[in-house]
Specification:
Strand order of the largest sheet: 1-2-3
Distance between the termini: 52 Å
Structural class: mainly alpha
Main location: membrane
Largest sheet: 3 strands, mixed
Number of strands: 3
CATH superfamily of the largest domain: Cation efflux protein transmembrane domain
Protein name: CDF: cation diffusion facilitator family transporter
CATH architecture of the largest domain: Up-down Bundle
Order of helices and strands: HHHHHHHEEHEH
GO molecular function, one term: zinc efflux antiporter activity
Strand content: 5-15%
Keywords: Membrane, Transmembrane, Transmembrane helix, Transport
Pfam family, one: Cation_efflux
Helix content: 55-70%
Number of domains: 2
CATH class of the largest domain: Mainly Alpha
Shape: elongated
């Protein structure tokens, strides 16, 4: 499904690129040229995204034990870099437009062509974002946001060209180009920033919060402590590892069963492809007794008082045990 959506984006981008360049050659408008230049970025980015989605879908192998999902971060970063490049080219074209203005022609026809591409881009962009969130695909989300932002900028372009037609102030053409260049540079920066964050395994607060809510909702008496929690994304796959403090007297089979129960809750509630590594820590009586709610404990030294509150801050800390309450 993801490959079909990216292929749709690729085909649509090629068709709209020809439409936008046709509009530019008819009008000589620098503002419309900025839209046409961005369409080249759409084509190149969609082509690279198509390959990255294919590669990300491949199963894990000997050389890639965590799968191929991180290629999607490269794809998003590549697309962001192209967008930044387009923004810089547009700035240059706008400056040339100020210094060496060209007569504008057939703006009404160009307006119709841009309006058509705006509607198509916006629709495809929304579809890609919808399914990108469904499949947890950064490539689909990035490509969808790019197309939708392209549609929004085209809509602003339509308004700007309409103002030029109404006021006959041709210098506004370059001003509009500067505005679009700024929007592109901003969009490209955010894509590159998110790409670098993913490649560097930066903490994703949304993912941590999702796991936290699952654990709080399904907390078991035997789960005395969870800490050193880490969530990493490899495309649509999640990798989670943490330390789970359990009663020290559990035998190997009982420990395994508790760890497996922990894993099953995460997989069932996220609905994602999740790989979980859990390190089991033994409790340390009497330090943990007041924080342990397990009523059937045969070796309790102190009465239960209160379980520590699980928050993002204390779950991600590499603190082996909670202090005595």
């Amino acid at each position: 499904m993801k490959q079909r959506l990216i292929l749709l984006s690729f085909v649509v981008s090629i068709l709209l690129m020809f439409i936008k360049f046709t509009a530019y050659f008819l009008t000589n408008s620098t503002a419309i040229l900025t839209d046409a230049l961005e369409s080249i970025i759409n084509v190149v980015a969609s082509g690279f995204a198509f390959y990255s989605v294919y590669l990300a879908s491949l199963p894990r192998d000997f050389e890639h034990p965590y799968g191929h999902g991180k290629i999607e971060f490269f794809s998003a970063g590549f697309e962001g870099s192209l967008i930044i490049t387009a923004g810089l080219v547009i700035v240059w074209q706008a400056i040339m437009g100020f210094l060496y203005p060209k007569p504008l022609e057939k703006l009404d026809i160009g307006l119709y062509l841009v309006a058509f591409s705006t509607i198509v881009n916006g629709a495809v962009g929304l579809v890609l974002q919808k399914y990108g969130k469904k499949y947890d695909s950064l490539t689909l989300i990035a490509d969808g946001k790019h197309l939708f932002s392209d549609a929004v900028s085209s809509l602003l372009l339509i308004v700007g060209v309409g103002v030029i037609i109404f006021t006959k102030q041709l210098w506004l053409d370059s001003v509009i180009s500067f505005v679009f260049a700024f929007l592109l540079l901003k969009e490209g920066y955010h894509l590159v920033r998110r790409s670098v964050a993913g490649l560097m395994d930066e903490l994703n607060p949304h993912s941590i919060q999702e796991v936290l809510e699952i654990l709080v909702k399904n907390r078991q008496p035997n789960w005395i402590d969870v800490h050193n929690l880490r969530v990493q994304h490899y495309g649509a796959n999640w990798h989670i590892d943490c330390h789970l403090t359990l009663p020290y007297y559990l035998d190997l089979r009982q420990t395994h069963d508790e760890v497996e129960r922990f894993r099953e809750f995460i997989v069932a509630y996220t609905g994602k492809e999740v790989e979980i590594f859990i390190h089991a820590d033994p409790c340390l009586p009497p330090e943990n007794c007041e924080a342990c709610s397990y009523q059937g404990c045969p070796v309790r030294k102190l009465a239960y008082v209160k379980s520590p509150e699980w928050t993002v801050e204390n779950l991600v800390k590499d603190a082996k045990h909670f202090r005595k309450i």
